[in-house]
Write a structure and sequence with these properties.
This protein is α+β, with helices and mostly antiparallel strands. Helices cover about 50% and strands about 10% of the residues. The protein has a domain of about 375 residues: Beta Polymerase, domain 2. The protein is built from 17 helices and ten strands. Strands 1, 2, 3, 4, 5, 6, 7, 8, 9 and 10 form a ten-stranded mixed beta sheet that branches. Helix 10 packs antiparallel against helix 11 and helix 11 packs across helix 12. The chain is elongated, with a radius of gyration of 45 Å. The C terminus is likely disordered.
């Protein structure tokens, strides 16, 4: 058996050794197509090498792009972190600044515009220092010559204008359709002529005329302090909606039913209560709304006054005309002798059951800037202002000097404006200053012999307000209004209304106003001496004592 296996292995080895392809002979030749194969293999190897180079290049580019993207992402994140840190610091700085400013205002002014302490009146500005102020004798002579003599003339003019206005309004009621037109009430005298402090001529009486819609309609008013948010430029204004009597603001007359907030009244839906647009326009509403339009009221009132005058003109020996086109009731009486008397008859709407009124247009545009729209009405507190002055006057010493101070200050400001042009200050601002001092000063400080001191107090207070650009409305936000006036509590709890806000928005007007005020201070003695009787000093003192 082992011998057989050995023989087989020997045969195999011999076959392998004698294989001609394994050991070719020396004279053998390479096949003819072998060179082509080798050449193709080289070309393929070259292509593979180039493909490998391209692939390596693409990989390198991708890696570079990825690296650049990562760097950009890191830089963006760093910038965001830096910006976030900067925003946090900026916000924190603003909060700290606002807190400091609020603390400063509270520390300097207290609540509202309280001027009860003597220190509030002791600070004079640079413009006031060095100004020569008239003494008591000169002021007494000036007041008697220039101002005191006008009281009788104002009383006669008020009596004449009120009598004619009553007759004109009675004729107006007769020419109006009581079933369709507005109902006009009796006129009310307001302003400087009825508070006895007007000094500049020509004298002009201001009369307001409340009116109401015909039945079954009523007015529903909404003010900026009623709870809804009003932008800053609309504070001090309100809107008036025309509704049916017994109808709430949403148009449903079921005000006595206790419906849930998620329930709808199917009996008095808005579709059933909607009125035609033409009917609402007849009620002087703005087009396609239920809100009273001041421009429509102006047109209606002018037409009604014209019809009323045509009915009664034969009874009078003078002519009546509108003196200002942009004011609905600016009227002028022209006598045949050439003399004339001007007065304002302005339509107003009563606010609820108070003596606050929505006024369509201000005579001579002294208080308010342009209205945001014709459906916005400014509120006037003129009746309460007159009532407050009357109430306080009863508590002051005899012949108190509060009205005299206001008259002299109004005269000086008017004369200065006639020399240098109008400024942002108005007589209403001057009266507001007096109202604050009446509330802050003890009663005995208004004795007639203290005229000079109180006049200086008014100038100091006014200068302080101009410097701070803050003079708050006397009634709005003032919790110290006497309860005897019956003033609406909603306005007492409202935020104070800054009458000097236009100075913050218009720096050119503010600078002009400050320059005019400083010029008035420098010219005070000259303006007063110009209208003072030049008589011996002892006689002046005698006149002053008699006036006391």
């Amino acid at each position: 058996m082992p011998a057989g296996i050995f023989r087989v292995c020997l045969v195999v080895i011999a076959a392998i050794v004698n294989q001609p392809l394994l050991f070719p002979q020396e004279n053998c030749t390479v096949p003819e197509h072998a060179e082509d194969i080798i050449q193709k293999m080289k070309e393929r190897e070259e292509r593979l090498r180039l493909a490998q180079l391209r692939l390596e290049q693409e990989v390198a580019e991708q890696e570079a792009k990825q690296k650049a993207l990562e760097e950009a992402t890191e830089a963006t994140e760093e910038r965001k972190e830096e910006k976030l840190q900067w925003d946090l610091w900026t916000a924190l700085s603003m909060v700290i600044f606002l807190l400091i400013e609020l603390w400063r205002q509270d520390f300097q002014e207290g609540i509202g515009q309280d001027t009860g302490e003597e220190d509030d009146m002791a600070v004079l500005g640079k413009a006031f220092k060095g100004v020569s102020f008239p003494d008591k004798a000169v002021l007494a002579s000036f007041y008697e010559k220039r101002i005191l003599g006008t009281a009788g003339e104002m009383a006669r003019m008020r009596e004449m204008v009120e009598g004619f206005a009553d007759d004109l309004l009675e004729a107006l009621r007769s020419v109006c359709n009581r079933d369709a037109d507005m109902e006009v009430e009796d006129c009310i005298g307001v302003g400087s002529m009825y508070e006895n402090w007007r000094v500049r001529k020509p004298f002009v009486c201001d009369l307001i005329v409340p009116f109401a819609p015909p039945e079954p309609y009523c007015f529903r008013s909404q003010t900026w302090c009623s709870g809804d948010s009003f932008p800053p430029d609309e504070q001090g204004y309100g809107t008036i909606k025309v509704c049916r009597a017994g109808e709430d603001a949403m148009g449903c007359i079921c005000d006595k039913t206790k419906l849930g907030e998620d329930m709808l009244c199917l009996l008095h839906s808005q579709a059933n209560t909607a009125r035609p647009s033409s009917e609402m326009e007849e009620l002087l509403c703005f087009k396609n709304t239920h809100y009273l339009d001041a421009d429509q009221v102006m047109k209606w009132f002018q037409i009604a006054v014209t019809k009323a005058w045509n009915r009664i003109s034969h009874k009078y020996e003078f002519d009546l005309s509108f003196s200002l086109l942009d004011s609905p009731g600016a009227l002028k009486i022209k006598f045949r002798s050439g003399k004339s008397v001007a007065f304002n008859l302005t339509p107003v709407v009563q606010y609820e059951n108070s003596d606050v009124y929505f006024i369509s247009h201000f005579p001579r545009s002294s208080l308010a800037a342009d209205l945001p729209s014709s459906t916005h009405w400014f509120l006037t507190f003129a009746v309460y202002e007159r009532r407050f002055i009357q109430l306080v006057s009863k508590m002051l010493p005899a012949n108190a000097c509060h009205v005299s101070c206001l008259q002299i200050l109004s005269f000086l400001h008017g004369k200065q404006c006639s020399l240098t042009g109008p400024s942002g200050l108005t007589n209403y601002h001057l009266k507001t200053v007096m109202l604050y001092l009446l509330q802050a000063r003890p009663r005995q400080d208004w004795a007639p012999e203290k005229l000079e001191a109180r006049l200086q107090d008014m100038l100091k207070f006014l200068e302080k307000c101009l410097h701070e650009k803050k003079l708050y409305h006397f009634f709005i936000g003032n919790g110290k209004v006497p309860a005897e006036l019956g003033f609406p509590i909603v306005f007492q709890k409202a935020e104070p209304l800054n009458l000097f806000r236009p100075f913050v928005l218009h720096r050119d007007i503010y600078q002009k106003t400050v320059d005019t005020f400083h010029e008035m201070l420098r010219n005070t003695s000259a303006l007063i001496n110009e209208y003072t009787v030049h008589i011996p000093l002892p006689h002046i003192n005698g006149i002053h004592k008699e006036s006391l």
